[in-house]
Amino acid sequence: MSAGADLADQAERISAWQCTGCGRIEGPQPCIGVCQDKKVAFVSAEAYDAVVARLSEAETRLAALESLATRMALAKPRAGEWEKSYRALQAEARRAVREAPAAKPAPAPLSRERLVEP
Question: Using CA atoms, how far apart are residues 3 and 12, in angstroms rounded to an integer?
Answer without folding.
Answer: 16
